[in-house]
Amino acid sequence: MLFCKDTTSNLNCLKDIFFKYAEASGQLVNPLKSSIYVGSISNHRLSHIANMLGFKIGSLPFTYLGVPIFKGKPKKIYFQSIADKVKIKLAAWKASLLTMAGRVQLIRSVVQSMLLHCLSIYSWTVSLIKDLERWMRNFLWSGDINQKKLVTVSWHKVCKPFKEGGLGIRNLSDINEAGNVKLCWDIMQSDLQWTSFMRNGVLRKNKLITYHVSSSIWCSAKYRLPSILNNSIWQIGDGKSINFWCGEPFVSAFNIPLNVHNSLQSSVADYICNNRWSMPQVLRTVYPSLHHQLNLVTIPLIHKEDKLLWKNCHDGNLSFKDAYLFHNTSTAHFSSWATCIWNKAIPPSKSMLMWRILQEKIPTDDQLLKRGCQLPSICNLCNFSVETTNHLFLECSFATQI
Length: 402
Hints:
two-stranded parallel sheet; 45% helix; 19 helices; mainly alpha; two-stranded antiparallel ribbon
């Protein structure tokens, strides 16, 4: 994708770039495969540009590198084609020839990889994520995306790590939330060119805009801004990017009324002179302890920009993994048996069977009875006792001989 203003000089320059590229590489730009996407310009001007370049006129939304490009708030219709590809992929696999362990591996390595990039860019609708998880859940247990089984482990348990008794499948909602938190973090503090471009569009007087902006990226990221601000701290540089009264400890420590918060627009740089704190006399009078607290904060002697640091990681830089762990805040309960059954020396199919036994989710007669299936029960091996999980694997005469 190439971006430029629609002036005649820019378009001629663009044509010259195509020509020089073709001379150097031997590859010609195909006008039939190239499209023009424009903003608010007249139809006459658009037709002139199309004739000048020989490209066809495109319209939003369209797909670029597997990701939908659109304007405004993300909607279900924009991502439906990606979800349909996942559905087709799941339906096409010969699941009847796969063990349950094989189906788990396909979901983890193939299906979720297909979704990861788009989930980390946009905020997907809840209904579409539920559809995807329903297809994955049915495929996991029955091998058919449309067939639901009675005896299953709840999806939130399946999505836990192996050491916590799950199957290591990551929850799509958590992936989407973590991706959007990471996206918002990058927009706020990264030095990359695209993040600088985004900040120029969503910053007004050093304040981020939280109301509607037509950018589909900012529409996904802006709702994660409170989480970023509540879990990060500023490292002071020149102080120009930091609101002096932005939060702890001043606003709360000095009990400043809520109705005046919007009028507190001074930056930290306004209170620094010659690399030292310089407080107006009126503030020293009203808040006598303020000067003492400021002296506890070190001002750098060399010029550098302010930097936002994430509290919950050692280097202050938020990674996707940190964002995922931050969102998935449930207390980890490590299962003592998990490391025993998930062992390289044990075939995955046998580990999966043992996992289902320990979860009490084998479809024996007693489990089916709990789910409303009224049927006479007897062990088909010994023809003596009622079929239960304990009897089948531990108490049956056939089991005791192994």
